[in-house]
Every structure is written in C-alpha cells, then in structure tokens.
Amino acid sequence: MGGAHSREDLDISDSESDGEENYQDVVEEEENGERSSERRTKTPSSIDEVDAKLRALKLKYPSQSHPTIPNAVKLYLHIGGNTPKAKWVVSEKLTSYSFLKICGNGGSDEEDEEEEVESCWVLKVGSNVRAKVGLEMQLKTFGDQRRVDFVSQGVWAMKFISDDDYRSFVGKFQDCLFENTHGFESTDANKLKVYGKEFIGWAKPEVADDSMWEDAEDGFLKSPDLVTPARASQDLREEFEEAADGGGIQSLALGALDNSFLVNNSGIQVVKNFSHGIQGKGVFVNFDNGNCRGGSGLEYSTPKKALLMRAETNMLLMSPMTEGKPHARGLHHLDIETGKIVTEWKFEKDGTDISMRDITNDNKGAQMDPSGSTFLGLDDNRLCRWDMRDRNGMVQNLTDASTPVLNWTQGHQFSRGTNFQCFATAGDGSIVVGSFDGKIRLYSNNTMRQAKTAFPGLGLPITHVDVTFDGKWILGTTDTYLILINTLFVDKDGKTKTGFAGRMGNRISAPRLLKLTPLDSHLAGVNNKFRGAQFSWVTENGKQERHLVATVGKFSVIWNFQQVKNGSHECYHNQVGLKSCYCYKIVLKDDSIVDSRFMHDKFAVSESPEAPLVVATHMKVSSFSISSKR
User: Fold this and answer.
1) What secondary structure letter does DSSP report for 573?
2) Of all helices (H) and strands (E), which one includes residue 554?
C-alpha cells in the first residue's frame, strides 16, 4: 500500500549555494552508475584554474541564473520509480521550451494552408520532450518552487528562473489546453460560449463562489454523527485475502444485508458480510441456462452488470450483445435462493425491441426493499423506469409467459444526441447522468424529460458517476481525473436547495478535481485510467459519506472526503485553475483491479470511522479496514 505523498513531491532545490554539481546528468547516471559527483576528477585545465581564482576575487560576472535565451528552464527526469533509489536527475541544465501548433499529420500550419487539417498545440522542451498539450500530461504545478511536473514517456519536472517566467508558462499552457480540448481559442468570449454564463466560474475559478463548499464543511464538522475527528490520520490494514471460486471475477455486487456476490465467467460466488470485510461461504451458484424459463432468445455471455433487488434475494444480470460494448437487449433474472435463472426479460417499447447500456436501482437503498419491482434503465438517448409487473401492476406469471416483457412505466427518448454513458441515484430517487461530452445532468425523482441542472463538460467523457445519499455531492469519473461537484445553491427566495430540485442560478461553485500525481499516474502503467469512482455507502438521513474510492490499473485510490472539501487544505496552496487534490492512499495489488467499493455503513465498527473496503482483482478479493490514529 502506498502513501498519500509520492516521491515526485520531493523538493528540487536550485539555490546557488547548492551548485549544479549536486545533480547528476541522466547520461552520466547511466554511464557511471552510482558514482557520486564528489568523486569526479577535475579537468586539469589552466583555464579552469584561472577562472576559479578570478571567481575567488568576487569579480562581477554575468549571473547564470538569468540567461539570455528565451523561455529558459532547467529540465529534470525522475528515475527509479517507487524504489528506495528513486530521485530526480538533471536532464538538461539549461534549455528552453516552446509551444508549437502543428497539423494532424505532424507538420506545421504553414505546410497545409490550402488543406484543412485538424491542428493542435504541442509542448517542446529542449531535445527530450515533445508532447501534445492535454489532460493526459497530468501537469501539476508547484508555485512556491516555480516548478511544474508532467508525464510524457516518463516523469519530468521543469524549474523556471523567475516567478514571472513560471506564471507565463502556466498561463500559456492553460490557453493551449483550452484550445486543444474545446477547439476554440482561449478568449473570454469562447469560454463563455463553452461553459455558459452560469458556469463561468468553472473557467475562471478565481471568481467562483466557494461559499457552499465552506458551508458544507462547517455542517459536516457540526454533525453529531461524526465519531472520529475529521482530521485524524488514518491507515488501511488488510484483514484477509482469498482466491475466488470459478476464477475470472467480472463484477462485484456488495450487499447491505447478510451476503455479497462475486460475478465471474461461470456463475456467482456468495460470500458472507462481516464487520471486517467479506469472506467466502463456499456457496457457488452456477449459471444454468437449462433451467431458464421464457423464450426471449437472448444471447448469453458473461454478465458485466449485476443488480441486486428484493431484499437481495434476486439479481438482474446484464450481458452485452457485442464484446467491448455495454449495450444489451434484455436481462437474465436470477433467484439467488434457488440458484436458478427464472426468466429472461426483454427491453421493449411500443412493440419494438430496444437496448440499454446500463441499469441501476430506484434509489440508494432500493435493493433492500423486499417488494421492489422497478429499476432504472439508460441508453445513449434514453432514460426510463422499468417495471417487472404488467401494465395493471400485477406480478407476471413467469412460468407461463413465453416472452416476458418489461413494462416501460416512465421515461423519455431524446431525439437529439445526448450520448448518455452512466447514471446513479440519490437516497430520494433523484438521478444523475453522465455523458460522452463530459456533461453531467441532474433529474428530479418525478420527471425524466428535462434536466433540472446540466453541468458543462471539462473536455473528457464521464465514464462513471455517483451521488451522495443526500444529493448534495456528485462524483464523476473520467480517464485522467475525478470531478467533485457541489449541487447546493440558494434560490431567489433565500432557500438552500440541490440542483436536483431546481435550476441552479449564477452563484454556482467551481468543482474540485481529484488526480494522481504525475509519478503515480506513470507508475500505474499503460492501463492508467480512472474507473468506477464512488462514495462510501450510506443509506440513512443525517449520515455523511467519509471517503471516495476509485480504481486505476493495479491501484485502488482512496481520498478522505472531508479533506477534499477543506478549502484550506495544503494541496490547494499555490495552485492555478480548478483546485486539485493529490492527497490519497493507494492500495497496490499484483493484478489489475476489477472493482473497489466500501461496504455498507452498517458494517463500520466503533474503532473505525468507515466500513471495510473491498478490492477485487480477476482472481482474488481482499478486505481492508480503516483505523484511526490520534
């Protein structure tokens, strides 16, 4: 398990008293191994000797700290990964950077004046770095050190001569990033065009109203349910790890009652819920298509989505029609108690077969309702509620039904491309939907036709979304960052509401981003995309989620929710743009992680501020507890 602060954050000192000889050049490091700079033999040069004597006289030499070359920087490379020998070494002692606008074929704009080719901004640093300006660079700023770190086939750091040079680079980088992301020059008019008047604080965080973040922080600190101090340091401790029966875990379905479930290629492993995590009971339910009742003719493949219902005695399994795509034409309905697939449901509207890309429960605690018969469905341009009862509200006879069809009871089919990707529900059934264009829409629990609030995208698709039980916070997942949004606002009557209940006005808080440091992003490997970020699991009014967790390759990354909301937190000092939090804990596994989730809040014990964290790889499942340290 890794700590919150990576080796990347080690200070790079550049004072004149230190001298450049304290830093080894990359080439010298490779050629000379561990040989220190103190053991280097001085070049027997009379010129050097004369120069040394002249310097001893303290004659006025031109300052080397203020070179005449434009955009001068010192370039460092991080070597050694996360080993004890990890360190920064000088790649180029004095070089320069430039932003180049190139065409899609790699040439300059002048080469293709007659032919329209998509162009983009590229950052070039010396002879070693040439990278397209984008969020994938994971640029992190250190204003107090006049330094920026980033990823480009390695982890690099640039140090600037003066504060003005540093600010000039960051400003130009932000402008190029905006243009590469949105396709418009970075002007106030274009920012207004992209974000809209209500959300201009997202483009200019310095003018955003953060009062709601402060109010939320104060409210949390005053909560009577706060068992441990919000700022107590915390450690993760692995309780146990065990191999999964059947192998090939595809998804994790955590229960809030007695059991949880591991869905794999051939069936479902039932495991027992404990206050210290989940543990196998030895019960395995095989998928048995031979006992499937109904004749919908759905093609069967390994389920990618499992939804618990009816006090967690039933499960809906969603299998994609095409490998690599989530869309399905129907569901397999599993009775967990009998171990049989009792029917195959078809998605149908007005007599026409349709597909769904995702399903979820009516609200945060709906899976515990023993009489639940409805759930929500999402497709690229559809948002709806399905009912397993017929149009008269009667339970369908699955034994006799040859082609049982789900009843579309509520929803909307949008005519224009919304490109919905994912959704989730709050405690009252309010719905949050993430889209391919990065937008996040909020729908009330009584209408799906028009969003009450639509947050603009920051440039990347939303691949997963979650919401707190009280609907006050939204957590969106993109490939390179998580976005945390506060939905609270004050209406014209002075009442505080969430964006699910009404259209948010002009006083909208800027979001905060949760990111990996450039080094951790690089160490996560080629599959270093964020997946499935979620809040810890609360289903009771008055209780507050305490942590956020997301998966990145072999990493399970955990943030302290209160720390992220704290505007005075050290991560936010000297930052430019949207506030980004880099303080987290890492659980490192040997294999790629399928899913990471916190168990239900009821499994939190007195000595722990949080329920156990469950981390599943394809072959193993582990449980971790969070302990507090004064």
Assistant:
1) T
2) none
Q: How far is CA 514 from CA 130, 154, 430, 479, 578, in A?
A: 26, 21, 24, 12, 10
Using the CB atoms, write b or e for 267-304: b if 16+ within 10 Å.
bbbbbebeebbbebeeebbebeeeebbbebebeeebbb
Residues 6+ apart with CB under 8 A from 273: 255, 257, 258, 259, 260, 599, 600, 603
Q: How many residues does the chain have?
A: 630
Distance CA 621, CA 249 (A): 9
pLDDT digits (tens, 9 = 90+) for 56-106: 655 454 555 555 789 999 999 999 988 889 999 999 999 999 999 998 655
Rounded Cα distance between 365 and 30, Å, is 57
Separation of alpha carbons 504 and 547, rounded Å? 26
3-state helix, strand, coil in the chain (%, to 5): 15, 35, 45
Q: Please report where in the chains the tokens 């002048």 appear, as a residue.
A: 110
C-alpha separations of 391 from 309, 331, 386, 405, 495 in Å = 20, 19, 11, 11, 39
Q: In the numeric block, which tokens belong to residue 28?
A: 């010298």
Residues facing 227 on adjacent strands? none
Beta bridge partners of 37: none
| Number of neighbouring beta carbons within 10 Å of residue 113 | 7
Secondary structure E strands in 63-139: 72-79, 87-103, 119-125, 129-132
Alpha helices in 188-305 (DSSP H): 188-195, 200-203, 211-221
Return the amino acid letter for 192. Answer: L
493 in Cβ contact with 466 (< 8 Å): no
What is the CB neighbour count within 10 angstroms for residue 505? 11
For residue 288, give the 3-state DSSP assignment: coil
Q: Which of 249, 248, 269, 246 is nearest to 259 (CA)?
A: 269
The whole-angstrom separation of Cα 118 and Cα 105 is 9
Secondary structure tally for the chain: helices H, strands E: 8, 40
Please give the Cα distance from 452 to 471 (Å, whole number): 13
Cβ neighbours around 264 below 10 Å, total: 23
pLDDT tens column, 149-180: 999 999 999 999 999 999 999 999 999 999 99
As a whole number of angstroms, the distance between CA 211 and CA 595 comes to: 34
**Position with higher pLDDT, 338 vs 608:** 338
Measured distance CA(139)–CA(160) in Å, rounded = 15
Other Cβ atoms closer than 10 A to 171: 12
Contacts of 208 (CB under 8 A, 6+ apart): 201, 202, 508, 509, 510
β-bridge partners, 492: none
Q: Is the alpha carbon torsion for 289, 382, 510, 146 positive or negative?
A: positive
Which amino acid is present at 352? T
Q: What confidence tens digit (pLDDT) does each residue in 399-455 have?
A: 555 668 899 999 999 987 799 999 999 999 999 999 999 999 999 998 899 999 999
CA angle, 457 then 459 then 461, to 5°: 75
Alpha-carbon distance of 583 to 450, in angstroms, equals: 37
Torsional sign, CA 494, 496, 500, 504:
positive
The tokens of 490 are what? 């004050």
